[in-house]
Design goal:
This protein is of the alpha/beta class. The chain has one domain: Ribonuclease H-like superfamily/Ribonuclease H (Nucleotidyltransferase, domain 5). It contains eight helices and five strands, in the order βββααβαβααααα. The protein has a five-stranded mixed sheet. Helix 2 packs across helix 3.
């Protein structure tokens, strides 16, 4: 059996991030959310999002009853770096992998749904603005009320924010 682990939202300006696990043979799935708060303030500088990613993958392993003989293909993105190291240390069969196809599509869909739950907008609205420029335009249209959705821990946000004033 093979399980893919992917993330979505790490590079997006708004919202948290999602981590998904998907068993290829049976299409069993698990989704967990890294809250937006992990990307803001001191939580960001303390890299709380990495701790959350590990917690989510451990929960997914437990929920899907993944055993150490199953191959875990883990996305090569930075947000899963601690996950990859942890799985190897815990004796899992882990391969860094570029995730594409059904698992990636599932992760992207789950991220968009997380933005809807967060209150960013309706599903069609969020899908239509899903790009860095699209999100930035949306935020700047009502900065006072929308900055709360931003991953404010990024240095790039501080620069953008200062230009918006």
């Amino acid at each position: 059996m093979v399980v893919e682990v992917d993330d979505a939202g790490w590079g997006d300006l708004i919202g948290g991030a999602v981590i998904v696990l998907r068993r290829l043979e049976s299409d069993e799935r698990f989704t967990g959310e890294i809250p937006l708060s992990a990307f803001q303030g001191s939580a960001f500088s303390e890299k709380q999002y990495l701790v959350e990613a590990i917690r989510i993958v451990r929960e997914g392993i437990s929920t899907l009853k993944i055993n150490k003989d199953e191959e875990l293909r883990v996305c090569t993105g930075y947000i899963l770096s601690g996950v990859r190291a942890g799985l190897v240390n815990e004796g899992f069969t882990m391969k860094p992998f570029r995730i594409v196809g059904k698992t990636q599509e599932f992760a992207e869909t789950e991220f968009v749904k997380s933005l809807v739950r967060l209150g960013v907008g309706a599903l069609t609205e969020v899908k239509s603005m899903r790009s860095y420029k699209g999100f930035l335009k949306w935020i700047l249209a009502d900065l006072e009320n929308r900055e709360r959705y931003v991953k404010t821990g990024w240095a790039s946000w501080s620069k953008l924010r200062s230009r918006a004033d």
